[in-house]
């Protein structure tokens, strides 16, 4: 979970996720860290193979790897990579012949992701600060796109998914964990900025999210399961996959 949201709240979003990068022991009001990843079904092999520091700023809302094995030699894009936990997990799966690209809007998260990949001894990862609607990635070069709790923070989700479609190879896979809105009720927080940053205000219903993905050109857009990760009474984590035809 890391930020790239509306212009009028973007600075506040970056401030929040900078704090998560630099002070991960703080209580942010939502689950994070290694114990949260374990609850979401991350393999003990991954949890034990990677140093604990890699998990401390990880605020996963689901496990995108449950949607399919990545595969040796693949090129993976992690959108909203945060401190790099999922990118490191993907690197373990693709091996020395694969490559991982992580993008995030928060400079402190990119710095921490680079440090974490070094701690893990992984050389096949590159991290870039970037807006998700303008990715620094060439057309048709990615085998699998993963994301975890990040796309709901973007205002222009239509453009984000068009970008993901652009960079994926034909037959490439979209495997994301993100927050969806289960009801039309108002969020409980008084601060719009806070609720956006906490993955509430920017969420879509499942039907709307699947429609946005399909309208970007993807096929077989499917909500596979709810994860039980809550950021409010009206939101829930969801695992969603789709194909680039």
TrEMBL record:
What molecular function does GO assign, one term?
Answer: arsenite methyltransferase activity
What CDD domains does the record tag this protein with?
A: AdoMet_MTases
Q: Which Pfam families match?
A: Methyltransf_31 (PF13847)
Q: Which residues form the Methyltransferase domain?
A: 72-216
Which SUPFAM superfamilies did the record assign? S-adenosyl-L-methionine-dependent methyltransferases
InterPro entries, per this entry?
Arsenite_MeTrfase-like, Methyltranfer_dom, SAM-dependent_MTases_sf
EC annotation from Swiss-Prot or TrEMBL = 2.1.1.137
- Which terms are listed as keywords in the entry? S-adenosyl-L-methionine, Transferase
Q: Give the enzyme's main class according to its UniProt record, as a single word.
A: transferase
Is S-adenosyl-L-methionine tagged as a keyword?
A: yes
Transmembrane ranges, per UniProt, are none
Note whether Cell membrane occurs among the keywords: no
Query: Which reactions is this enzyme annotated as catalysing?
Result: arsenic triglutathione + [thioredoxin]-dithiol + S-adenosyl-L-methionine + 2 H2O = methylarsonous acid + [thioredoxin]-disulfide + 3 glutathione + S-adenosyl-L-homocysteine + H(+); arsenic triglutathione + 2 [thioredoxin]-dithiol + 2 S-adenosyl-L-methionine + H2O = dimethylarsinous acid + 2 [thioredoxin]-disulfide + 3 glutathione + 2 S-adenosyl-L-homocysteine + 2 H(+); arsenic triglutathione + 3 [thioredoxin]-dithiol + 3 S-adenosyl-L-methionine = trimethylarsine + 3 [thioredoxin]-disulfide + 3 glutathione + 3 S-adenosyl-L-homocysteine + 3 H(+)
Family designation: Belongs to the methyltransferase superfamily. Arsenite methyltransferase family.
Q: In its UniProt entry, what is this protein called? A: Arsenite methyltransferase
């Amino acid at each position: 979970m890391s930020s790239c949201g509306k212009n009028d709240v973007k600075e506040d979003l970056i401030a929040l996720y900078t704090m998560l990068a630099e002070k991960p022991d703080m209580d942010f009001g939502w689950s994070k860290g290694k114990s949260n990843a374990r609850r979401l079904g991350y393999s003990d092999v991954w949890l034990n193979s990677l140093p604990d520091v890699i998990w401390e700023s990880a605020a996963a809302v689901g496990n995108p790897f449950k949607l399919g094995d990545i595969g040796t030699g693949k090129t993976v894009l992690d959108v909203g990579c945060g401190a790099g936990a999922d990118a490191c997990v993907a690197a373990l799966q693709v091996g020395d012949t694969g490559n991982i690209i992580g993008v995030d809007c928060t400079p402190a998260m990119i710095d921490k992701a680079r440090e974490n990949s070094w701690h893990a001894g992984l050389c096949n990862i590159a991290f870039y600060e970037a807006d998700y609607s303008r990715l620094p990635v060439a057309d048709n070069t990615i085998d699998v796109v993963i994301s975890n709790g990040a796309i709901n923070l973007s205002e222009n989700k239509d453009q984000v998914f068009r970008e993901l479609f652009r960079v994926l190879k034909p037959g490439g896979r979209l495997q994301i964990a993100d927050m969806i809105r289960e009801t039309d009720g108002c969020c409980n927080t008084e601060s719009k900025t806070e609720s956006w940053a906490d993955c509430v205000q920017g969420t879509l219903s499942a039907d709307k999210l699947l429609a946005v993905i399909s309208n970007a050109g993807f096929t077989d857009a499917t909500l596979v399961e709810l994860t039980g990760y809550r950021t409010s009474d009206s939101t829930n984590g969801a695992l969603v996959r789709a194909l680039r035809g």
